[in-house]
Design a protein that fits this description.
The protein has 231 residues and is an alpha/beta fold. The chain has seven helices and eight strands, in the order βαβαβαβαββαβαβα. The structure holds D-xylitol-5-phosphate and zinc ion.
């Protein structure tokens, strides 16, 4: 079942609890938290203290996407703050396997992220240990960027590999996923859909989420139908 992981990077930071509640009313089921350090990406966003406040404000799972140079240094603090899922960039992890183990040891679900220029094949060895793989469909750092279509092939290829390896990790996609791109993204095989600017908009957030999920579910249904017809 496809899920909307709404990215609070596009929300009003002065009213985070209300923004989360509104997106949840629209059908969002995961809070996507973009942690940025000003080094791995040029921007700075938020870290464990904000995660702790969010934990007190919502029961939804907190999916932390670490866009930082040294993710290992944040794992313990994010666990203590109440994070549920942590995704780390393959590009910064010198010991990716160990970092994923650490996340799991801290009681959270481990995930790995790749930038648009990073091939899916670099992940083969760690696929059995992840809860999900996050395919970036923009270069990370900012919300509101244009979706890069090269992500679609990577999603479809990853889905194929998952089948071949007999695994069941989920496939998340992040960046430029909006009402005009979500159909293709779901048809390619993604089932955790990160969306920020397509969801948060004063007075329209709930409706945006409802419409976004409607399109996502229609694409999911169409893909299932196509699969049945091919069998
Ligand atoms: C980008 C972040 C995204 C961002 C997505 O670096 O990882 O999660 O919030 O924003 P939109 O949905 O506006 O592309
Ligand atoms: Zn993100």
């Amino acid at each position: 079942m496809v899920e909307l992981a709404f990215s609070i990077l596009a929300a009003d930071f002065a009213h985070l609890a209300d923004e989360v509640a509104t997106a949840e009313r629209g059908g969002g089921t995961i809070v996507h938290v973009d942690v940025m350090d000003g080094h791995f990406v040029p921007t700075i966003s938020f870290g464990p203290p904000v995660v702790k406040s969010l934990r007190a404000a919502t029961k939804l799972p907190l999916d932390c996407h670490l866009m930082v140079d040294n993710p290992d240094a944040l794992i313990a603090d994010l666990a203590a703050a109440g994070a549920n899922m942590i995704s780390v960039h393959q590009e910064v992890c010198r010991h990716l396997h160990r970092t994923l183990q650490q996340i799991e040891r801290h009681g959270m679900l481990p995930a790995v992220v790749i930038n648009p220029a990073t091939p899916v094949d670099t992940l083969i060895e760690v696929l059995p240990m992840v809860h999900h793989v996050l395919i970036m469909s923009v270069n990370p750092g900012y919300g509101g960027q244009k979706f890069l279509p090269l992500a679609l092939e990577k999603i479809a290829y990853l889905k194929e590999i998952r089948h071949e390896m007999g695994l069941n990790f989920r496939i998340e996609v992040d960046g430029g996923v909006a009402h005009d791109t979500v159909g293709l993204v779901v048809e390619s095989g993604a089932d955790m859909l990160v969306a920020g600017s397509a969801i948060f908009s004063p007075g329209k957030t709930e409706q945006n989420a409802v419409e976004f999920l409607k399109l996502a579910r229609a694409a999911e249904e169409a893909a299932k139908q196509e699969f049945i017809e091919q069998e």
